[in-house]
Design a protein that fits this description.
heterodimer; B: six-stranded mixed β-sheet; four-stranded antiparallel β-sheet
Amino acid sequence: MTVSVRRTEVGALLGFAERQMYVYKRYWVWEVVWLFYSIVSVLSIGFLASGLGALGAGGGRFDLRKAQLYLLVGALLWGYLSLVFMEAAYAIAWERWEGTIEYTFMAPVRRVTHLMGICLFAVVYGLARTFIVLVVAIAIFDVDFSHANLGGTLIVLAASTVPLIGLAILTSVLPLLSPQKGEQMSFAVQGFMLLVSGVYYPLSVLPAPLLLAGAISPLTYALSGMRRSLLEGAGMGDQLPTVAILLGMGAVLIPLGILVFSWAERRAKRLGLLKRSG
Amino acid sequence: MNVPAIDIQGVRKAFRRREREAGVPFWKRATAKDKVALHELDLQVEAGGITGVLGPNGSGKSTLIRILGTLLTPDSGTARVFGSDVVTEALQVRRHVNRVSVEAAFFKELSPWENMVYAARLYGYGGVRSRVVEILEGLGLPNDVIDQPMKQLSRGQQQKVAIARSFLTAPSLLLMDEPTTGLDPRSKKEVQDALEKLRAEREITVLLCTHDMDEAAALCERVLMMDGGRVLADGSPDELCRRHGGGTLEDVFMRLTGKALVAEELEEVAK
């Protein structure tokens, strides 16, 4: 790749991220609504733990405070990870809604640049939105993160984003395969990840087949790693195995996602699916 | 030797559609039928000038445009743009090509400025506001629309922004797919003027697909008449009229196909 081509690709990468920013700026009212929804969801989970206490689940053997933290961390992280996942997974669906899919696919940029540009914005946006929800949750539940290890938390958060991007690219293929049903299938994938990744419960409660699915979900490792750092103070050194697993999964999922996307794009061009109406 | 802007050899494209016949149970797969959009098309277009492609809906015009824009792959044959193959060297082709389609493909909530800066970044140009303003003004767009959402602009204004966007990205081959269809006469004239201006200012090859015979006669040096995925006639507007019994391009088209282009268009609108 020549220097000028590389510069064009970097410009395009930022162009995709900037375009998303403009779109969100225009749809800001919707973003306020979604932020409200995120806050309400996380608060509901927090109050669920409080409610367990009110229903008599305490009884000496059950640490309600710990349960509340466990659930809140799960809800916050799921909020971030699912947002990044859906933003990237909707990269194609969004273009189809707006009627720009043909224009974008005719642009002289590599598909990996296109997808990474969308992911770049999704990560920054996801972090910003999750931070706001975190601030509200801390204020309402008086959450104690005094044992948290910031370095360990951040390193797992950064590493967990890598395989998530790969998964999201794989899912963004669905609207290319089926213009009519692809978007809904993205929701199904997201729901399945919620089920098997231990967002609100330890994986040990799952039956064996779902346990197996949980073992290959990168979110499982992201969530358990983050919980160890936030609740038990695991440092960067302690998190190296988790980081290695997450990066290893990313090293497989991102190239796999791009390969599958290329195949789906070729198929869509052969069948004439690459158009706004599908 | 000059490389042709477009070089198509034996390109065929068919689309498979599944049609369910009456009485077939829902669990049985519908029968697949192929509808041929292009039949072994051969076409060469030298660099420079405007070549018109005339034909009714379903004649294969848009399929041709989409193949050249790397949005469709031919089933057989080869298509090259400035020497690069649209399938194996798609990225190279895309550096040469831009497209203005019948419906302006924009993020409707974004402004002309935001849409154009996005396009500029994709094509490796900086989003210089003064340049965008200059191009839009040159096309007669009022200054105050540049920051308004696209959805608030008239269709004529949107098409002008689409043309301005293609100016900004400086393509060597501009594919125009019915850019004036559905526009009021004044907007149509303004878009046609913009195209004339583009031709006067730039070394550019334009492939203009249209239903409008007058538009083709006024703007194009060369006209291809298509129907049913085949090229029926090819030549300059005057040449075609002379060769096929005189009259207008509309008369020539009717003689060649037995169909009236305008009637077909009206039927399509009525559907």
